Amino acid sequence: MKYLVTIFLLLISCTSQPVVPEASNVKVSRAKPSKDCEDLGPVVGTVQSKGGFTEAAVENMRLDAARKGANYIQMETTSAYGTTTQGTAYLCR
Predict the structure, then answer these.
(1) CATH code of the region 2-92
(2) 73: exposed, middle or buried (Cβ count in 10 Å: 0-12, 13-18, 19+)
(3) Residue 36 dihedral angles phi and psi, to the nearest 5°
(4) What's the rounded mean pLDDT across residues 61-81?
(5) Calculated CA dihedral for residues 50, 54, 59, 65, nearest 10 degrees
């Protein structure tokens, strides 16, 4: 019985990284990042519908950045209809 309790406690105390990174942890700004940030490359966010969906495209871009391990995006462009956003992902320490 003691062994079962020990195993149970070990199992519930273990934590792991989520399979899908949290896009909400990625800050988006047009400002240049600080000098202690590492450039992780370009990121893109898109939506299929025209008009007024810039927020959804930005969220898509944030998820792209999170998957690359970034926590900051310097947003660079938004398409005329707001269906595509582009930027550069950074890991800032």
Answers:
(1) 3.30.110.70
(2) buried
(3) -90, 15
(4) 94
(5) 100
Report yes or no on whether pTM surpasses 0.90: no
Range from 11-15, 32-36, 60-64, 84-88 carrying the lowest mean pLDDT: 11-15
Report which residue type is found at 3: Y
Instruction: Provide the pairing of β-strand 84-92 with 72-78.
Output: antiparallel
Report domain extents, the chain.
Answer: 2-92
Express each pLDDT in 11-52 by its tens digit. Answer: 445 544 455 568 889 999 999 999 999 999 999 999 987 665
3-state helix, strand, coil in the chain (%, to 5): 30, 30, 40
d(CA 45, CA 2): 52
Residue 60: what are its φ and ψ, rounded to 5°?
-65, -40
Give the C-alpha separation, 29 to 43, whole Å.
13
